[in-house]
Amino acid sequence: MTDRKELLKELEILSNAFGPSGFEEEVIQKIAGLADTLHCENDAMNDLYMTADGKINHDRPVFMLDAHLDECGFMIQSIEDNGLMPFVMLGGWHMSAVPAHSVIIRTSSGRKVRGIITSKPVHFMSAKERADSSLEIEKHYIDVGCSSRQEVIDTYGIMPGDPVMPDVAYSYDEDGDICFGKAFDNRVGCLCILETMRRLQQIGFDKLDVEPVGAFAVQEEVGERGAAVTAVRVKPDFAIVFEGSPADDIYVPKNTAQGSLRKGVQIRHFDRSYISNPRFIQYAMERADEKGIRYQNAVRRGGGTNAGILHNKTDAVPVLVLGVPCRYVHTHYNFCAPEDIEAAVCMAVEVITGLDPAKQAYILGKNILKRD
Ligand SMILES: [Zn+2]
Fold first, then answer.
1. What is the pLDDT of residue 121?
2. CA 77–ligand 1 middle distance (angstroms)
3. Are 213 and 127 in a shared domain?
4. Separation of 203 CA from ligand 1 center, angstroms?
5. The domain spanning residue 287 has which CATH number?
6. How far does the chain reach from its first CA to its final CA, in angstroms?
C-alpha cells in the first residue's frame, strides 16, 4: 500500500502532465515511470496496458481496470495576421469556463508556451457588451503576447494543430486535506488503476481468481475512442471504470446530491451510456458494507463513460463504474478529497479479491435460467 503522501505526490505528477485528447504520450510516460515492476505497454494510439508480466493470458477470467488518460483541452486552428490564434475544443467545455484563463500550448518540437485565452477588458466593452453574457468560441483567441503571425512562428514555432492544455499547477492543502489541480477527470482514475494494481501485486496476482489488467484509454473526452481499442485488445470478462466524476454537492440539496466530496466512492447505476449490471452492483455494495468502505449511489441524468463501450463491444461484460467526486471537472481548476480516492481503490481491491468462481457465475447471470 502506498503511503498517503506518496500517493498524493503521484497525483501531482499525473495532474500536471500534458494530455489533451489525442496527445496523451506524456501521461503514459509518467504512469510507466511510476509503475515499478508492473509491465507497461502502449499501442499506436497511446492506450496503455498494465499487466503483471507483459502478457494477457486469459487463463482465468480477465478483470479490466479502465480509466481514460485524456483531459479536456484545445487545438490551435490557425494564426491570424495580428498573432492571435483561433482554436477548437478537445472535449466538452462550456464557453463560460473558457475565456480569461491561461493555457499551455505544446509545439511539435515539444516546447511549451504559455498563452492567455482572450477576453475583452471591461474598459473596452460597450454597455450592450457588458449586459450580454453569450459567448462564442469564434470570437475568442489564444494570445501568446506576440503582435504578428510571423512573430508567433519565429519566436515559438507554434503551428496549426498544436495541442493546448489548461495552465494549472497541482497543490495539496494539508489543513483542509484537499487536492487542487487540473485534469482530475481523469488522472484521479489513472491513479486508482495504478494503486489498485500495486495492492493486487502485493497480495499476489496468482492468488486471485481473475487476471487483472490495467487499461488506460485515450480520447474518452471526444467520444470513447481509446476504449474501443482497449476493449478488443484486453477482451475483458469483467471491468471497473474509474472516473473523476463531477461533484454535485454544491448545486443540489443534501438528499439529491449523489457526488459529494468526502462521502466515499460513487457507484454509478445509470447514465446515458450504460445501465449498470445490478448483480455486480449488489455484490460490490455487500463487499463494501462488509469491509466498511464508504460509497454513494449515483443515478445520472446525463454523462457517459467508457463503460458504454466496454459492456457490449466484445461480449456482454459486467462493468462497475466507480467515481471519485471532483468539483468543477471540465474547467481549469478542480478539487477532490484523498479519502474518496482511497475509498475507490479499496472498493476495487475488495471487489477483485472477493470474486471467486461462485460470485463470478452469479454476476454473469449463470443461475438465472435454472435447468434440472
Ligand atoms: Zn472523465
1. 82
2. 24
3. no
4. 29
5. 3.40.630.10
6. 46
Look at residue 329 and tell me if it is in a domain.
Answer: yes
pLDDT tens-place string over residues 251-282? 988 888 999 999 999 999 999 999 999 999 99
Q: Judge whether residue 48 has pLDDT over 90.
A: yes
Q: What is the pLDDT of residues 152-163, one digit of tens each?
A: 999 999 999 999
CA–centroid distance, 25 to ligand 1, in Å, is 17
On whether both 84 and 67 belong to a single domain, the answer is no
242: amino acid identity, one letter: F
Question: Which of 220, 221, 243, 342 is flagged as catalytic?
Answer: 220
Q: In terms of residue numbers, what domain contains 297?
A: 4-72+170-363
Q: Is 87 found in the same domain as 68? A: no
pTM over 0.90: yes
The tens digit of pLDDT for each residue in 183-206 reads: 999 999 999 999 999 999 999 999
* Placement of cell 460597450 in the chain: 126
Is the per-residue pLDDT at 370 higher than 80? no
Position 371 scores a pLDDT of: 67
- Give the Cβ contact number of residue 250 at 10 Å: 10
Q: Are residues 269 and 355 in the same domain?
A: yes
Active site residue 290: no
Please tell me whether residues 178 and 142 are part of one structural domain: no
The number of folded domains in the chain is 2
How far apart CA 180 and CA 15 sit, in angstroms, is 9
H or E stretch covering 65: strand 62-68
Supply the CATH number for residue 117's domain: 2.40.30.40
CA of 357: how far to CAs of 56, 263, 293, 300, 320, in Å? 19, 31, 23, 31, 18
pLDDT score of 372 = 60
165 within domain boundaries: no
In the structure, ligand 1 is a single-atom ion and the residues with CB under 5 Å from it are: 185-186
In the reported structure, the alpha carbon of residue 329 is separated from the centroid of ligand 1 by a whole-number distance in angstroms of 8
Pairing of the two strands 265-270 and 295-299:
parallel
Tell me if 204 is assigned to some domain.
yes
Do 256 and 216 belong to one domain?
Answer: yes
- Calculate the alpha carbon distances from 268 to 103, 278, 355 in Å: 32, 11, 20
Mean pLDDT within 125-154: 92
Query: 297 CA to middle of ligand 1, Å?
Result: 18
* pLDDT above 70 coverage of the chain, percent: 99
Distance 92 CA to ligand 1 centre (A): 10
